[in-house]
Model the fold of this input.
Amino acid sequence: MGDTAVISYRSLGEASSEARQVSRKLTGYADSLQRSIVNRLDSYGGSDSGGVTQAKQRTEEKIEQLRDKAQAYTKYADDLSDLQKKCLSTDTAVRSSVSGLTASFKKANGINNNGIVNTINYMLTGLGNSTPAGRWLGNTIDTANSAKDYLKQRIKDWWGYEGGKQLVKGITISLLEITIAGITFFSGGSLFVLIGAAIALVNGVFNLVNEGRAYAQTHYNEEPALGRRYSGEDTMQATMRRESDNKILHNIATGVDIVNAVCIVSSIIDSAGKVVKNCYKWATGDLHPLDELKSLKILSSKENWTQFFRKSGASVKDGWKNITTAIGKGDVNFFKTELKNFRSDFIFNLRQKYCDFTPDHMADSIKDILGVTKNVVKDGIDIKNVTEDFIIPGVTVAKVTTVSTESGGQMRFDISNVTFEDAYNVADKTYNQLFKNILLQKKTAISLDVLRKLSTDSKIHIEIPRIYIPDNTIVMQMG
Done:
């Protein structure tokens, strides 16, 4: 039995396209070496002890090798295309012979045979290989496939190596920051809220501009290190410190940091006040709205704190007792009911946070949605983001009741959930926004990452050679 060769025309076409693509990459690499190294060495006007000339010569040798390989891949692609065409031509001839034998067999054995259909099939099959139009169409399809593969590879290179990913990510984050700050500013609030939103708005604009500068350095100037530096300048203060040695600008940046810190402290106090008031309402059963309660008065009352801790202890004790009793009795319905209540509260809390588009809460819901989008774009979907954006806001720790009087003298009772997020936000703002980003930040024009690298011990041993210096003392003798 002889050997059988199975040839895939599609595989030949794909191999040819891949070879042409490799040829283009090699040529592009050679062009980049010529542009970024050889041309710069040619324009070097300083002293040369032979190192510059040697570097230029080796680079030119590398460029020549790359161009030779590119030509070899181009020839390989052409050979594959020729082989594909020859195989198609041979296959067409065999198909025509088989078709003729089949027709003869059908006729000899009285099998109906449609001559018109056979003729059309024969003409269409041979048209692709025996006529200039057919060959042109085949070449056009090959060229289109090659161009498609090349475009896909160019997009992949732009996204991964030429700054495209960082550009899209940076611009998206900047626009989200600007939108969130704009919504906060135009929604109104206290003076500190407006000032903090204005600072965030300006920082978002600076971040957007610096992302464009970073892309220009990475893509056009082939300076990815400088591009990463510009991309890291995401605030007005950072830009002032890194881009200038002017002490006035540095002092302005420090002043903006101080004002921003005051705004953050005001936000922390406001959030902490709501937590304290809700704790008081839960412990005492007070029915007044939060804005009618004074947090400082509540904090200074020993009786209030005693009542809070007493009720907290009793709540934990009763909860544990119910759990152990249910386990002892095998009461599965208890756990089903508690799980159902937890799930119901969890879904309700998330809807209140992200889907409350009533006039009083629409701005907050939109900002929360944009905040989640920003976190996903910045860090991806990880455990930290899922926990902070969905789990913590959904967990209920207490329920409080508020009574208000509507127009007409009717009493309205509102039962609201106090979530774990309320207390978590206070701790998060205090640590991440206040201490970590502002109060503990080093005011320097050098990136903190660079400083950390410079402060570590170097593993490279550099030894200064000893050079003999002759004694040039001149001894003069008086005759």
